[in-house]
């Protein structure tokens, strides 16, 4: 025998029950979210107000500790000064000028019968001031023209560049057996730079020592090793 059930609850009552169930679910979810938010707030509060302050306090204590240790080191100021000077040596070495290249360049440029009595180098302005004597004004002009047309090249560089951007015969004179001169020269800083090894390219059409084959002029034949007191080369701008 089959059973027959009758739903005696009206539709309004059913909707009310469903609404209450939904409301309870919303309340439960809201309560859970509120608890999660409260827990997150508590964690953040503990980190900021407790852990972070403790970390900063520990850092301050470490600073004080190491500061006191440094203060106990004798002559610390002197040690730091020496260390800074040592650190600066690398830069100074890289920026220094190779003055010894003068003894390579001048024999290639100087005519056989020309004597350089005084030579002043200013590396900050990249200038050379030379004065001396020669057997004739033609030799002086040869020296000037040789420098004007001299170029140089660097390793791994195809194009050559002018070695001397300006060569000016400042003064000259003719005496009975010799000529006097003063020359102002502006050179390329790369000629004496610590980086690279420039190679001079001296024109062969001028009467330089390399063409004549003379071993050396007076400046490189004893006079350079022991110059007179008023003829010693001077150096500026180092």
Task: Write a concise synopsis of the structure shown.
The chain has helices at residues 11-71, 76-95, 102-109, 137-148, 209-212; strands at residues 114-122, 127-134, 151-153, 161-162, 164-174, 179-187, 199-201, 234-236. It has 238 residues and is an alpha+beta fold.
Explain the overall architecture.
The protein has 238 residues and is of the alpha+beta class. The protein has two domains: 8-72; 99-236, no CATH class. Helix content is 44%, strand content 20%. Strands 5-6-2-1-8 form a five-stranded mixed beta sheet, covered by helices on one side. Strands 4-3-7 form a three-stranded antiparallel beta sheet, with no helix packed on it. A hairpin with a 7-residue loop joins strand 3 and strand 4 (161-162).
């Amino acid at each position: 025998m089959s059973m027959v059930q009758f739903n005696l609850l009206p539709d309004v009552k059913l909707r009310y029950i469903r609404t209450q169930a939904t409301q309870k679910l919303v309340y439960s979810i809201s309560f859970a979210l509120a608890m999660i938010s409260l827990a997150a707030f508590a964690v953040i509060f503990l980190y900021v107000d407790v852990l972070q302050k403790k970390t900063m306090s520990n850092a301050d204590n470490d600073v004080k500790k190491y500061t006191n240790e440094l203060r106990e080191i004798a002559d610390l100021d002197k040690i730091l000064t020496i260390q800074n000077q040592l650190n600066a040596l690398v830069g100074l070495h890289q920026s220094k000028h190779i003055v010894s290249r003068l003894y390579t360049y001048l024999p290639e440029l100087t005519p056989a019968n020309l004597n350089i009595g005084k030579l002043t180098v200013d590396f900050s302005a990249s200038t050379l001031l030379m004065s001396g004597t020669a057997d004739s004004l033609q030799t002086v002009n040869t020296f000037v023209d040789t420098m004007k047309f001299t170029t140089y090249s660097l390793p791994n560089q195809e194009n050559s560049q002018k070695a001397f951007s300006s060569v000016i015969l400042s003064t000259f004179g003719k005496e009975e057996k010799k000529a006097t001169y003063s020359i102002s020269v502006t050179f390329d800083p790369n000629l004496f730079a610590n980086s690279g090894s420039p190679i001079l390219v001296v024109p062969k059409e001028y009467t330089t020592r390399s063409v004549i084959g003379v071993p050396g002029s007076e400046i490189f034949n004893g006079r350079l090793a022991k110059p007179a007191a008023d003829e010693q080369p001077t150096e500026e701008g180092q």
